[in-house]
Amino acid sequence: MDNRIYNILLLNSVFGAGSQRAVKIYAKLNEMRLLDLPIEKSVLKAGIDDTTRERLLGVKKERIDKVISDCKRADIRILPIYDTGYPECLRNIAVPPIVLFVKGELPDFDNLPVFCIVGPRKITDFGRKAAYSLARRLSKAGMIIVSGSAEGGDFSAHSGVLSVSGKSVMVSADGIITQLNSKNHLLCKNLLKNGCIISECPPREVARKYSFPIRNRIMSGLSLGVAIVEAPEKSGTLITASHAADQGKDVFVIPGNPTDNAYKGTNALLRDGAMPLLEASDIFLRYSEEFPEQIDIKKAYSGEDSKKLKKNSQKKLLSALSKEAQLVYNNLNEHQFSADDLYVPELDAGSLISALTELEIEHYIISVPGGTYKISD
């Protein structure tokens, strides 16, 4: 076994995600060129204190072997911080992950336009549509979208990307195998066709409450900037904005009604200097000059007018929709309906709502008062 990989996984296992202590020990071992030695020799030569040394040497080898075998069986890449493929943008944050677990195609974060979109788990209908349509628009232009793994804003952002077969990066607070076996398994499966799932945690680890704010520094660290679509006064979404600001990244915010609690957090960010996000062009204007070959603004808006003018021939355009949206559209038996009226056994609740959002944005259905929809005429 490669001692370097073993030692990195051991540090990660003992100290957990987001540990500054693990980063300091790694840096010391690396600087003293001790990372290649067996852990019992490297920590002794590095002069690591007795308590820490006992913690590290007390871990059974089988525990680390299990992480490695899990990764091999699930085709998960172990990407240590010293690897040339590790994103430089992430290596430079205050407390970089000493190892990443990656499933899928890892984008070139350092040379491509990567942007983060986040919103709360409990999101309003407006916020859900905003996350979906913004992610869809940016993805159509050629940008790579980063978000988390929760229901609500994260799910909507990834769904918007998938509706145009774009590249999406899910940063999971859970281990990747745990995430793949969650209720988001359908989203994960579709996301992996073009994108990837990243975690700082061993594959079978289950996230705890503190895991999410720690995870959020990775989302902002991988991105040029962050868009907060919605956040109440006390929201984990605001932690991503805080990390982005600390990392010198752009923070965009969609303004909201100042009397609505759902926007108290985001409006406070605007008051403190965040950039207002009124439309996708605000983001294009910020980054298109830096990435003229990768960001195609015309493509972001292509086909929009034709879809609005071709309502009578929408069935001919069904092939352009995601498979989930096609399934839902083909199961619409009533002119007016609610989400609860639909029975599509192939889709979970989150996928169903995402498909309805896509159909609404593409003018196949219209939302009407009372939480219902009707088929466009």
What are its keywords?
single chain; 377 residues; alpha/beta; Rossmann fold; Arc Repressor Mutant, subunit A; 3 domains; nine-stranded mixed beta sheet; three-stranded antiparallel beta sheet; 18 helices; 12 strands; 43% helix; globular
What does this structure look like?
This protein is α/β, with parallel strands linked by helices. The protein folds into three domains: 1-68, no CATH class; 114-300, Rossmann fold, CATH 3.40.50.450; 307-375, Arc Repressor Mutant, subunit A (Orthogonal Bundle), CATH 1.10.10. It has helices at residues 3-15, 20-31, 39-45, 50-57, 61-73, 88-91, 125-140, 153-162, 176-180, 185-191, 211-221, 237-246, 264-271, 281-287, 297-301, 304-309, 323-330, 349-361, and strands at residues 77-80, 99-104, 114-118, 144-147, 168-172, 196-199, 225-228, 250-253, 275-276, 336-338, 365-368, 372-375. A nine-stranded mixed beta sheet has the order 1-2-6-5-4-3-7-8-9, sandwiched between helices. Strands 10-12-11 form a three-stranded antiparallel beta sheet. The chain starts with a helix and ends with a strand. Mean pLDDT is 90; it is low at 305-316.
Task: Spell out the blueprint of helices and strands.
Blueprint: H1 3-15, H2 20-31, H3 39-45, H4 50-57, H5 61-73, E1 77-80, H6 88-91, E2 99-104, E3 114-118, H7 125-140, E4 144-147, H8 153-162, E5 168-172, H9 176-180, H10 185-191, E6 196-199, H11 211-221, E7 225-228, H12 237-246, E8 250-253, H13 264-271, E9 275-276, H14 281-287, H15 297-301, H16 304-309, H17 323-330, E10 336-338, H18 349-361, E11 365-368, E12 372-375
Parallel strand pairs: 3-4, 3-7, 4-5, 5-6, 7-8, 8-9
Antiparallel strand pairs: 1-2, 2-6, 10-12, 11-12
